[in-house]
Amino acid sequence: MAMADGAFTLGFIGAGKMAEAIARGLDKSGVLPSSRMRTAHTRLPRRETFASFGVTIMESNSKVVEECEVIVLGVKPQVVKEVLVDLKPILSEDKLLVSIAAGVKLKDLEEWAGKARVVRVMPNTPCLVGESAAVMSLGEKATAEDEKLVKVLFEAVGKIWTAKEKLLDAVTGLSGSGPAYIYLAIEALADGGVAAGLPRELALSLASQTVLGAAKMVIDTKKNPGQLKDEVASPAGTTITGIHELEKGGFRATLMSAVIAATKRSEELSKT
Questions:
Q1: Among candidates 36, 38, 32, 31, which has minimal Cα distance to 15?
Q2: Residue 6 — pLDDT band, cuts 50, 70, 90?
Q3: Is 217 annotated as a binding residue?
């Protein structure tokens, strides 16, 4: 199959910010040139944005599907059914549909997409800066080769793992909503710095870089975060004093509760 050697054509149905990040990431990394990408967005500004870095603009979604072996579906969840049912006659078994529509289940995607092979992906917004944490779930007809190809697509904008679909609500609660929790933490750390006398700009820069550095330490050293915390917290020092305050405020329990609450909300939304 042509897709195995990277010589495939990629279509975008829905050309929002996430689709743009994927397209730019693939082009920039050299994985897939923009000349092999197609879209047909209805809004002129989105069409112009994609055309500006070499994506071919088609006159309709049908033309995009006809020309492409792999189609990324990035429309709003409430219009997924309408869009797919319209395209169903041309979604043949040689098409791979990759849905990034939040909360739309594989069984529905497969029913509406007819014969196409389907993979569902839950990415998050840091894909806009090439640091997505994404998870994919494979549909019944999806192959090991499809899994490899989706991995290539999303590794152009971060990292991706494979999991059963029943875990995607928890993925939404953790990595889907998680960036917002960390933005709050960065803002609060910066506010703390300002309260302690630092200029706002310096406090925000230090807080942001500290979070980035801490995350990289966990990823690169592969040490348990608890161990890394212990390495910073010397006896009767500043760090353990600060940690004591966080524990008094229920910091860890509150973050855990946030993930669980967001997971439950994701479950509710995917049933509506």
A1: 38
A2: low
A3: no
